[in-house]
Amino acid sequence: MTEDDELFADMPRAYIRGLEKGKGYVKENYLRQRREWMKLRQIIAYYESEGKKKHKKRLAELYREEKQLAKALADMPSDPVLPPPAPLIKVSGVVTNYHQRCLTHYFDTKAYPQTWEYFSRQDENMASAAMVLASTGSAATAQGMVESNEDRVPAAAWYVTGEINGRQFSGWLGAPYCREGEEVELIAAPVGEEYLVYALIRPHARSLTMPPWCYQGIRRARIDAMKVPISIVILLIITMLVVFICQDGWVVTEKIVSGVTMFLTMGTFLYILPAIWTIWRRHPFPKEQLTEEILTVAGWENVNNIDLRRLKRRRIKEFKKNGKSVRVMTSGWWFYYY
């Protein structure tokens, strides 16, 4: 057994097998249970408003189901606190009394309260556009716009608890490959006598893990977001060139060329430029902001341009070039080498 295998030996084998097969193994899904409980509460409230005597038998069944769900939810850990409630600090020490549980939760942009105002305005604009489409007879398209805006994808994460330097800590991390008695660095927010953890760094293994979707700085994220509008601009330019070449060869008429030119020009001003303006001036990047804050506290430089995925790939190539064995499973899922 290699040193790395020994350090990762305490990972649940079912979870490891799930990752190696390309399927995230999630042991607990409290989000689904919580949705079921809320739906059940609405049904119970409806039957109670209709009269308890009238639906006595049905209510008794619903009460039993509610009691079972409430018992299961009693063991649910606290929701992720995003962004950190206090300035982050770096804590070094040996981990003791360490425990971890695999769950699903939301870590997308909407999980950060500072973005709610932006998305509220976006939802209003989307609803207005959907109403216009519905009034023109495009009901299916309008419904698709509204439904697509409601979709949120949960991510698998690990809820970790333990002690470091005599103080308790807890937090949600992507892939905390850590074992009890290991010396680590925690990037955490002190809350009372405890720490809320937002990153776990293993200096001896040159690896770290953070909450899901935290892997790049704000400037790098904006550059990546620009790829779609830039690709469309390139496609428009190629289309224009093809049209003009065909015109010279008498394949298309002047009327078609004028129509295509007007369409491309309008598309540029109505979609491309607003998209670029939104990316650089309006769209929130809370996950990237948290990434920068974590890495700054950890002592990293040039964090606004960092992309841990690219850095991870370079490090793995270096490890393999130097003859060091690296398990593929440990190179992803919000776990990074640096």
Describe the structure.
The structure is a single chain. This protein has 338 residues and is α+β, with helices and mostly antiparallel strands. It folds into three domains: 3-25 and 80-214 and 318-329, no CATH class; 30-73, no CATH class; 220-282. 50% of the residues lie in helices and 17% in strands. It contains eleven helices and seven strands. The protein has helices at 3-7, 13-20, 30-50, 56-73, 116-135, 139-150, 218-225, 227-248, 254-282, 286-297, 308-321, and strands at 89-105, 155-164, 167-173, 183-191, 194-202, 207-209, 335-337. A five-stranded mixed barrel has the order 1-2-3-5-4. The longest helix has 29 residues, at 254-282.
Question: Outline of this structure?
Answer:
With 338 residues, the protein is α+β, with helices and mostly antiparallel strands.
Q: Please report the total strand number as a whole number.
A: 7
Helix content: 40-55%
H/E element order:
HHHHEHHEEEEEHHHHHE
Could you report the average pLDDT, rounded to the nearest whole number?
76
- The assigned structural class equals alpha+beta
**What's the gyration radius in Å?**
26 Å
Termini separation comes to 23 Å
Largest sheet: 5 strands, mixed, barrel
**Low-confidence spans: pLDDT under 50, at least 5 residues?**
1-15, 18-25, 128-149, 328-332
> How are strands sequenced across the largest beta sheet?
1-2-3-5-4
What's the tally of helices?
Answer: 11
What oligomerization state is this entry in?
A: single chain
